[in-house]
Amino acid sequence: MTETVSVLLPIPADRPYTYAVPEGMAVRPGDHVQVPLGPRQVAATVWDVDGDKVDPKKLRQITDRFDCPPLSDDMRRFVEWVAHYTLSPPGMVLRMVLRAPGGLEPPAAIIGYRWAGGEPERMTAARNRVLELARDGTAWSKSGLAHAAGASASVVDGLIKLGVLEEVALPHQPLVPMPDPGHGAPALTDDQQSAADVVCEAAKGGFSVALLDGVTGSGKTEVYFEAVAEALKAGRQVLILLPEIALTASFLDRFEERFGARPGEWHSDVAPRKRELLWRQVATGEVRVVAGARSALFLPFADLGLLVVDEEHDSAYKQEDRVFYHARDMAVVRGRIRDFPVILSSATPSVESLVNAQRGRYRHLRLENRFGGAALPDICTIDLRRNPPPRGGFISPVLAEAVAKTFEKGEQSLLFLNRRGYAPLTLCRVCGHRFQCPNCTTWLVEHRFRNQLQCHHCGHSEPTPQACPHCGTFDHLAACGPGVERLAEEAVDLFPDARILVLSSDLMGGVKRLRLELEAIAKGECDIVIGTQLVAKGHNFPLMRCVGVIDADLGLANGDPRAAERTFQLLSQVTGRAGRAGGASTGYLQTYQPEHPVIDAIARGDREAFYEREIANRESAALPPFGRLAAIIVSAGSKREAEDHARGLRRAAQMPEGITVLGPAEAPIFMLRERYRYRLLVHATLKAKLQDWLSHWLASGPKVRGSVRVQVDIDPQSFL
Ligand code: ADP
Ligand code: ZN
After folding, report:
1. Ligand nearest to the CA of 216
2. Does 691 score more than 70 pLDDT?
3. How many Å apart are CA 108 and CA 172, to the nearest integer?
């Protein structure tokens, strides 16, 4: 009798499919298999040994079973949980697990040679040198043996032919060496030690969450490394999530100093072959520690025993593509399902995590002081109404003077502006024409280094024209507002002798160049850094003493429920780049509203004031974490289709107590990649069963037809 099993395929189907198991093949839940799907063969995962009760003769058969450790039970439950929570088809979550299909097959064996026991009839000096090395039974690669013996490869070939050397499969090399928990343990300060004691104790137990909440430079990394060491001693695997891992090469160095070996690295800039090897060795348990981007959460660990989310507040943890998920939240879920501890680390915790800590759901570990007696920077606001920049400029004389003084002392400054390119808007001074993206309702951003106008949302770009395409007038295009490139121009005028470096993710050379530049800054090879938010993220610049925020109000203008929180975090992190290695340092905030509560809290160094107010506001409006939100984005190729569908959905909404639907409204970016977008916002109380209600509502609404697409974003971070 043929067996049937249910197999989850990495496709947007809402449930597993049933396949027949061919005779002679045994499969268990979690096994990775190859199955036919239409004309294709796809890698998929056995979900359950009981398939639907269908006559196996009518079913298609599993083609092959991969020689690979099965996906653990808890990982399958995690996939289901994420699918249910995010309202995504489980197959699309599994697709994130099966991201390195090459890893399903064992790597090809590497052939080596060892002594077979005999001696050649004719011995030469070269043959003897080879055999002297091989006689102890060690297996060598052909070239390695020839090289070590100072003989040519043909000498080794000759011995193989004679049967004096025999072929063996060499044990494969682990991708990264085993980290050693005792390698470079630091002497912790008392504060650090008490926090480390708590996380180490937790690391020995089951599920718990600790919020490691310490000012920038307080040694949070050193503290959670102790928990990593503890998990390693217990023989378990560890995952450390980092928001910008591709740019934090220094993190890998630090890890190596502490543990004597690098962690496995997982992010999109790792070469495909290395990713496949990592995926496999995570599944076999050979790789013990992975440092990765959010997608590392879906790696098939054999025995994950600790998960650290560094910079847990960072918005890079939210994926807004296909499956919309927040890696920090899902990390906690993964810990709960598999029953291991989770550490969330940040100098500026998310309101959600802080509330959880205050309510006792998370352990709250505070580090109030920087390591080594370094002081936090003094923060000053520069009121732009009283100290405006000169006409056409963006740097107030007060900030210019501070930078000049810093430069004179041979120290570094950072000018921060969260805008790439030269100017966010270009217009014609004669007819007023504004350059807009043909695919999106956004302005094109001028990039003067490249002589291009670019859309930062869809990637459209066109050469900057000389004449206005509307009225034809030459040389009358005006740049409106600043970007980092324009700021650099102003800085060069103001500080002609300083070495100025512009750091922006869109400059030529990509990640490699950025890494080099970050290193150069750390080594003091430039005097003034001009950068976008990527300089804010966790870097250690020992010589940085002065940070100027060009437009502290920028993020507050967004007006979405998270604007205040995000601005507070960004400004704290950016100014926190200053003075990490000691010495007096200052952060300057250029603002038109110094009395704004967010700016004021930062200026007074009173973070409690900010959090208290923000938490109270959220609570009174029942916003997260005191209520829940879900965004529904309806888009289509035509405005009519999108609008009709969005309105139809709204009409179908039968709102029970505790659930309210707002909208539809045109999205702030109404057209994106040639699609028209409407948003509905669902608000729910904590008690309401939001997911169940949403699935029911979406199923009862109008059928998704034509070019219409409906995206569900649970716990939205972005409202564009
Ligand atoms: P955070 O993660 O809180 O920003 P880090 O862990 O990066 O702080 O520490 C800031 C700096 O201080 C780093 O250069 C780190 O090596 C150093 N440091 C922190 N604690 C210690 C310690 N106990 N011994 C030696 N150096 C430390
Ligand atoms: Zn566009």
Report:
1. 1
2. yes
3. 9
